């Protein structure tokens, strides 16, 4: 009768590490594809679409902040304008990623 061969703990660890690496590589590839898709969607947003989003979807307080910031023009105001435009662009990107064109 032969005795069963045992797999050493070190070998089992190497095998488990390899399995994890394969799964991690697959997940990394999916994440990269999603990132590249998001980047492409962001680059596809046009100036006209951004302004349309602002005109149609800004709330009254957002409009007020934007117009006051535009009138004053300080560094803080430029930052506020950037943040509002970025929010509008992010809304467009999220809608497109969700499939709502």
What is the secondary structure topology, with strand pairs?
Layout: H1 9-44, H2 47-57, H3 60-72, H4 75-97
Helix pairs in contact: 1-4, 2-4, 3-4
Concise overview:
82% of the residues lie in helices and 0% in strands. With 101 residues, the chain is mainly alpha-helical.
Can you describe what's shown?
It is a single chain. The protein is an all-alpha fold. It folds into 2 domains: 1-44; 46-101, no CATH class. The protein is 82% helix and 0% strand. It has helices at 9-44, 47-57, 60-72, 75-97. α1 crosses α4 (75-97) and α3 runs antiparallel to α4 (75-97). The longest helix has 36 residues, at 9-44. It is elongated and about 90 Å long. The mean pLDDT is 88.
**Which structural class best describes the helix and strand composition?**
mainly alpha
The N- and C-terminal alpha carbons lie at a distance of 69 Å
Please report which band the strand proportion falls in: under 5%, 5-15%, 15-25%, 25-35%, 35-45% or over 45%: under 5%
Q: Can you tell me the overall shape?
A: elongated
According to DSSP, the number of beta strands is 0
Work out the helix count. Answer: 4
Poorly predicted runs: none
Fraction in helix: over 70%
- Radius of gyration, Cα only, in angstroms? 26 Å
Largest sheet: none
Q: Please give the domain count.
A: 2
What keyword list fits this structure?
2 domains, mainly alpha, elongated, single chain
């Amino acid at each position: 009768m032969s005795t069963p061969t045992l797999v050493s703990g070190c070998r089992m660890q190497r095998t488990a590490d390899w399995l994890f690496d394969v799964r991690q590589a697959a997940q990394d590839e999916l994440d990269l594809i999603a990132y590249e898709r998001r980047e492409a969607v962001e680059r596809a947003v046009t100036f006209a679409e951004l302004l349309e989003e602002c005109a149609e979807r800004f709330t009254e307080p957002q409009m007020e902040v934007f117009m006051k910031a535009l009138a004053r023009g300080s560094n803080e105001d430029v930052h506020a304008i950037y943040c509002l435009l970025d929010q509008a662009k992010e809304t467009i990107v999220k809608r497109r990623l969700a499939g709502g064109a």
